[in-house]
From TrEMBL:
Keyword terms of this UniProt record: Membrane, Transmembrane, Transmembrane helix
TM region positions: 21-43
Name under which the protein is recorded: Putative membrane protein YvbJ
Amino acid sequence: MSTKRKSPTLQQKRDEVNKKALVWASSVVGALIILVTIVIILANL
């Protein structure tokens, strides 16, 4: 019975970690896109 009570809290923690991972991944991808565009612009100059 105690394991059933603990599972929802573990699931909530996993959801929080997944959200943080998504934020990190999206920010990294955004930074890479910005860097690539800057490099392309500088190369064209």
